Amino acid sequence: MVVALPEMFHKEAILAALGRGMHVLTEKPLVMTTTEAREVVRAARGAEGSTLMVDQNYRWRPQTQTLRKALRGRAGRDDRLDRLRVPAGHHADDHGWVAGEDGASLPP
């Protein structure tokens, strides 16, 4: 199941899908709080045969927008870039856990 909802609804949708044995893909943020994240991760670990995945897309990053502009008119019909896979480096300022509302950070 793809959770394509505002983040305030992620937790309930994820838990419902995991409860039905589905694989789940959601965009960042996983959920709204550290407490909710712990609950969702615990449910995913207990949902045998299900996988919980979190996607981070780069469509609004300046590099992606520059590439879109450069390719405009060359990437397919309607000047639309449907799919682009570019290896991206991992930068410390782009990734990593941040403190939750309770001051704790989630383990990797």
Explain this structure to me?
- The protein has helices spanning 10-19, 34-46, 62-71, and strands at residues 2-3, 24-27, 52-55.
- By secondary structure, the protein is α/β, with parallel strands linked by helices.
- α1 (10-19) packs parallel to α2 (34-46).
- It is built from three helices and three strands.
- The longest helix is centred in the middle third of the chain and has 13 residues, at 34-46.
- It has a domain at 2-75: NAD(P)-binding Rossmann-like Domain (Rossmann fold).
- The protein has a three-stranded parallel sheet with strand order 1-2-3, with helices on one face.
- It is elongated, with a radius of gyration of 17 Å.
User: What class do helices, strands and sheet pairing give?
Assistant: alpha/beta
Q: Outline, from the CA principal axes?
A: elongated
Q: For the CA atoms, what is the radius of gyration?
A: 17 Å
CATH architecture type of the domain at 2-75 = 3-Layer(aba) Sandwich
Helix proportion: 25-40%
Q: How would you write the strand order of the largest sheet?
A: 1-2-3
> Are there runs of 5+ residues with pLDDT below 50, and where?
90-99, 102-108
CATH superfamily membership of the domain at 2-75, which one? NAD(P)-binding Rossmann-like Domain
Our estimate of the beta-strand percent is 5-15%
Count up the helices.
3
CATH topology of the domain at 2-75: Rossmann fold
Average per-residue pLDDT, rounded, comes to 76
- The sequence of SSEs as H and E is EHEHEH
The CATH first-level class of the domain at 2-75 comes to: Alpha Beta
Describe the biggest sheet?
3 strands, parallel
